[in-house]
Specification:
The complex is a heterodimer.
Chain A (H helix, E strand, L loop, with lengths): L1 E6 L2 E11 L4 E4 L2 E11 L5 E3 L9
Chain B lengths: L4 E12 L4 E4 L4 E13 L31 E6 L3 E12 L4 E4 L2 E16 L3 E3 L5 E3 L1
The chains are: A mainly beta, B mainly beta.
């Protein structure tokens, strides 16, 4: 595959962001590769109903 | 000409926290990792020095990455070598995030979050005053 890109004028007036979080990236520029992965876990077992006990340590 | 120049007239960032970075200028490699144990309790009760990333698989399991097998040639022509933004206003960046003004080569970001919620048991009072936990 031959992928040909022509970058013409790029001009942005205003960018307003509330939050950039959890290994996110906000980039004004070029990049060759951007690789992003995320694991988010909230299984049923993570809902604990009972007396408050500290989480297990090492 | 390979990279374009980024021009930002005005940048305002209110807060950077938890290993976040505001980078002005070009970079080559960016690799960020964020791990979080998010514990919510029904009451405001927090113990110091609790929890361990080793106890939960989400923090150690490998993330499968699809190999790139397709042969591809990419040719970029920058007819206008400037990326222009007049104004950027960001309230906050947190948990190993990056605000980057400028070009980069390779960016790899990873986030692993485990949510745990602890709720109080529901207590039913019997007519004889006994307590029942649901």
């Amino acid at each position: 595959m031959n992928f040909q890109v022509y970058n013409r004028e790029l001009c942005v007036g205003s960018i307003r962001v509330i939050g950039v979080s959890s290994s996110s990236v906000l980039i004004v520029g070029d990049a060759e590769t951007i690789q992003q992965s995320s694991i988010f876990d909230t299984p049923a077992e993570s809902l604990i109903i009972g007396p408050f006990v500290p989480l297990e340590t090492e | 000409m390979f990279v374009r120049t980024s021009v930002v007239d005005h940048l305002k960032v209110d807060a950077l926290s938890h290993s976040s970075v505001a980078e002005i200028g070009d970079s080559a490699f960016i690799h960020c990792l964020s791990r979080a144990l998010a514990v919510k309790r029904e009451e405001e009760l927090f113990f110091t020095n609790e929890g361990s990333f080793r106890k939960y698989d989400v923090f150690s399991m490998p993330i499968p990455m699809e190999p790139i097998v397709e042969r591809m040639t990419m040719q970029t022509t920058n007819l206008k070598p400037i990326i222009k933004v007049n104004n950027i206003d960001i309230l906050g960046a947190s948990a190993a995030s990056v605000i980057h003004i400028g070009s980069s080569k390779h960016i790899a970001m990873e986030a692993r979050v485990k949510h745990i919620r602890q709720l109080k048991p529901d207590i039913i009072l019997g007519s004889d005053g006994t307590q029942m936990f649901l």
